[in-house]
Amino acid sequence: MRNKEKIKSAVRSGYARIAKQKGVCCAPECSCSEDLARSISRKIGYSEEEMRSVPEGANLGLGCGNPVAIAELKPGETVLDLGSGAGFDCFLAARRVGETGKVIGVDMTPEMLERARQNARKVGFKNVEFRLGEIENLPVADSSVDVVISNCVINLSPDKKRVFKEAFRVLKPGGRLMISDIVLLKELPGFIKKSVEAYVGCLSGAIMKEEYIKIIKAAGFKRVKIVEETFFPMDCIANDPTAKAIVEDLKIPLKELKGIESSVLSIKVKAVKLTG
Amino acid sequence: MLDERLLKILACPLCKESVEFKEGKLVCTKCGRRYPVKDGIPIMLIEEAELPEEKGEKK
Hints:
By secondary structure, chain A is an alpha/beta fold. Chain A has helices at residues 2-20, 33-43, 48-53, 67-71, 88-97, 110-123, 160-170, 190-193, 196-200, 209-218, 234-237, 241-249, 254-261; strands at 78-82, 102-107, 128-132, 145-151, 171-184, 222-231, 264-272. In chain A, 51% of the residues are buried. Chain B is an alpha+beta fold.
């Protein structure tokens, strides 16, 4: 339990740091910021049009991409984004569900929510709201949302079982779960698993693919399906503290880093909460 | 300030019961925990909520 709290606080402070920076890079000497976020976002499947449609600064280039989920939203739906960060996916979702729909973003990092709120104000989105909260203890009523989305966040939770149970609870019967996340094909070397930086960077918290799917099913979801899976490009991971930790602090040779690359998958999963 | 429809689906993160907007705070209708609202964002963290018996004692 104490360990879980420790992880949570490391994740929170890691992302608070990222939120406070102008762009996405962690190294002060790096000047790529917004451009890098865009190039990463393009790579993970968001269109130029989508990137243009959100306020500047909402796209931190931190996700593994959830454009499929966004595309399948329908006008009028209520959407919950787990780990909404600076609000990129929330704003895209808000455009899809339109004025009759609603989007709620939940994030546990106050600095991220502050950015999201500023971003919402910039463009005057009326159908997006944010709550400071934990995805393990969602501040959302039972059976109240149509779609739960989440983009590369659940791997960061020290209690993934609980996150999926919570997602199941808040979905209306017939509601959908559409998430993207990082999973593993092979266990990571021990020294990476122990690295807090690698945890914050979406790596050490990731679990084996089969285990991940098993947890979703155990939470009650049906028709659990991996709709897409791709090897996670290391330069996307390099966008946050991970690569720095791995390459510099841990002094891993490039060859070994390539080995890690072939163990890390980005997956998109769909599932439903059946009626009755 | 808070959207009516969204207030309806907001719940106490601990007991998952509905909350009411009272004196600038969101109050759980079951356990009475009071969640602050900062800059329009509800702070729905269990550890940051005021317990009902603390009311008036602190500050």
